[in-house]
Amino acid sequence: DGDMQILDVGATQYILSDGAFVAAHDSVEIKARLNSSIGGAFFGNTGGFLVMETSGQGQVVVAGCGTLFELEVEPNKEVVIDNGHVVCWDSRLNYNLSVSTSQSSGLLGNLMNSVMSGEGMVLRFSGKGKVIICSRNRQNFLAWLQSKLGPSRSGQ
Questions:
Q1: CB atoms within 10 A of CB 73
Q2: What is the secondary structure of 18-74 as a DSSP string?
Q3: Beta-sheet pairing, 28-35 with 49-56
Q4: Cα 120 off chain centre by
Q5: CA distances from 123 to 26, 38, 154 (A)
Q6: Cβ neighbours for 23, distance < 8 A, ≥ 6 positions apart
Q7: In which residue ranges of the chain is pLDDT below 70?
Q8: Please, is 91 exposed, middle or buried when counting C-beta atoms within 10 Å of its C-beta (0-12, 13-18, 19+)?
Q9: Per-residue model confidence (pLDDT) at position 141
Q10: pLDDT of residue 74
Q11: Does the model's pTM come out above 0.85?
């Protein structure tokens, strides 16, 4: 159960997260790129962080679980998104993958488990451009959005 979106590639190129790519014009080239480190820490046997990069001119179709939304990243305002929700982003944006520090349990064991399962990984974007995210699952997403946009309570 997922949404698809058509991106115009040319003036803007995109970086697609693994699994987001559906189809492209043959005038568009899609190259895989592996980032094997996160914030200086090596991924180990997870194989690294795979992204696809577009080049050329034409259209690309991307998909994500649930509903797709566009977020605008503005200069001087970093956006942090759970790795599992990111579909693709403007290749001009700066991005890095890191382990979410919002998990209150700072135990190494938990951290390693979360890294290996891909949970607790976040992408940090800065610069100017758009990021396309997916809801994965409407209920969870609304709760997540609420937690991000709701009044900030201490101890959360």
A1: 21
A2: TT-EEEE-TTEEEEEEEE-EETTEE-GGG--EEEEEEEESEEEEEEEEB-EEEEEE-
A3: antiparallel
A4: 12
A5: 29, 10, 24
A6: 60, 61
A7: 1, 35-48, 100-120, 137-142, 144, 150-156
A8: middle
A9: 62
A10: 94
A11: no
Residue 95 amino acid letter: Y
CA distance 75 to 58: 27
Lookup: tokens for 144? 């997540």
User: Which amino acid would we find at residue 86?
Assistant: V
Quote the pLDDT of residue 156: 42
Which residue type does 99 have? Answer: V
Residue 139 pLDDT: 61
- Residue 70 tokens read as 């566009």
Retrieve residue 138's tokens: 């409407």
| The token pair that represents 124 in the structure block | 């940090």
Query: How many residues are recorded in the chain?
Result: 156
136 and 82 Cβ atoms separated by less than 8 Å: no
